Structures are given as C-alpha cells and as structure tokens.
Amino acid sequence: MAEGKVWLRKGREKPLRQHHPWLFSGAIAHAEAAQDGELVAVYDSRDRFLARGYWNSQSQIQARVLSWRDEKIDLAWWRRMLLRAIQRRDNHPEDTAVRLVNAENDYLPGLIVDRYGDWLVLQALTRAIDARKQSIAVALRELTGIPNIYERSDVEARQREGLAESVGVLQGDEPPARLEIMQGGIHYWVDIRRGHKTGFYLDQRDNRRMLRELAADCKSEARLLNLFSYTGGFALAAGGGIQSVNVDSAYMALELAEANTALNKIPAASAEFIQADAFDYLRHCVDSGEQFDMVVLDPPKFAARKGQIQRAARGYKDLNLNALRIVKPGGWLMTFSCSGAISRDLFQKFVFGALVDSRRNAQIIRQLGAASDHPVALTFPEGEYLKGLLLRVE
Known about the structure:
This protein is an alpha/beta fold. 28% of the residues lie in helices and 30% in strands.
C-alpha cells in the first residue's frame, strides 16, 4: 500500500521538531492517501519532511511518530527497534518479570510488552499496532527466545482508536491460571489472563524495594496499612516482621495476595486481608482511632483526561487527608497517583491541601516514580504517568 502524506498547519511544527511523538487533529492542514493504521510521511507547511509515523483518522491523536528520520519503516526496522528496547532493560538476573517495551517512551508508540517468566504479554493500544501484532509477536519470539506470547489489549485506550478489546494467545500456549515470578527476592503468583494491567504492577518494583528498606528499620510490632493492595505487593515487600492489613475491593485479588503470603513463607498471623472500599475503610480507621506506622496509598487511575481532574482532586484529597490522620508520629506515608492527566506538581498540591487540613506536618523524603524498566522519553512528559511521594509524618 502506498504511503500517505500529511501536511501541518503553518506554525504547528514546533512540537514535532522537538521530537514529541503525537500529532493532534488541530495541527493538521490536510492529508493525502492516508489510510487508518498505515504509514504516513509528515511535512511542514513549506513541504519539508519532518517525520514518519502511522495514521488514524478516528483518533484525536491522528498521527504517532515512529521516526524523525527519512527512513524505511519495514519489518527490519521493527525488529531493530524491538531489540534495542529489550537490550536496554536493567540487568536484574534475580527478576523474572520486567517491562521490555514501554510504548512512546521506547519510540514504539502504542506497544507495551511485559515479560513474566516464560510468557510475554503484549498490549496493542492503537490501530497500527493492532494490525501488526502478529508480526511483532513473531519477532519478539525470535528475539527473546520466549515461546509464549499472550495478548491483553483490553484497555480503554483502544476505544478512542475505534477498536474493540482483544485478549488471547498470539504465539505458543495458553497460560496457566497462575504464573510464578520473582522480583527483588519476592515470589508472586500472577494471573496474566485476568489480572490488572498485564497481570501485575511491574512499575512499582523499585518502590517496593524502598518499602522493604523502611520496614527493616521498624520494630516488630509495627503495622502497615496497604490500601488498594491488589495481590499484596507492598505488604510482601515489608515481610513477616510487620503486621500488615491489606484492603482491596476485589476478592479475587485478595485470594491471590493470601496465596502470595504463603508462597513467601510469611506467617499467616502477620497478614490480614479485608475486602472493602478503601475510602470507607480509611474513614473507619479515623473514626475508630486506629494508628499505623506505615500507610501505602496506590489507587487506580482517577483522571485519564483533563475533564476528570476536578473529580480526581476530591478523591486524592479525601484519601490523603484520612491517611495522614492515622499515621503515627514519625511514621511513613507512601502515596501515589497513576493518573495521566495529573502532573507531578498538581499531585503534590493535592497532598499539600490534605496535609493542611490534617493539621499535621510532613517531610518529603523522596519523589517516587515508575521502576527503571519503565523509562520516560524526555520529549514525552506524558509518559511519566506514575507519580508518588514518600512522606515522614510528624
């Protein structure tokens, strides 16, 4: 199929020249022979080549850049870019789960690839990646030597591309109900068929290691409240020397968290699992005067788009206010936002507002983010979706 051509409006080329990978509809003057899901060359208003990417007229982001060089985008190009992403991952031989491709941040927009032991999980977030997922899966199998590739393209982003959800085997075998992985010396059961995201929150790897260091300095009677606990990752990092309370609304996640506790030989008496709404449980803790040495807040995405920010602000304020109220003096609050529409600065302002209302004092000990296998392209600030703060609360 012949390559399409896209021309930008006058004065709208600056972001592209600065290597931002997205072209919104408002920046585009006109297009010729541009087919949804297919390659296009992008030119400025003076007909000068700017970039090559792929097109989707159904999306607000109508073009996504693959290369700012005038080069051929063929199977050899895809293999070269996939291999580059894979080779740049950290060398943690003890970890059997890692993100291998991080979409725009690895200059492969719309493509996520995670490794879980002998399985790869692929997410095709855009029409162009969806059209190429089988050839990408074959290339991944050859480049990694991993025979089994499972698709988890059941995400909201596909709706904005005019795509339905897609889940199933791309290469190899059907995965078992549970896979065992290891990260940072901790063993986890993971369900890549039904679990959150691609099965597990790989992006919290480094933050779990940090919590483990904090927990090592705590007394044996110390208590951890792990809210939105999912399969218990932060409580497992804290280890059996701390009493943990794990709260999640999903019974299936708590079942896996309990199984993970046993898998790591943590005494059952040191971990409690509660199915409840995290907001309600926090209010219950405040009302009953409960206190914890450590609180972890890792809620789901509250604001994917700008129109959802106001509602998200109320949610973050409520959570952090009540969490601050139940941390013992000198204790720790680890709080996160994974909302793409919430900047790091705005999230910190939400937490500051909660702190003022709590009438406590707190110090920022560290700014937190996604693990190092989730790089962020400097020209693509939207790639920094996970923001967090480690606070010492007085």
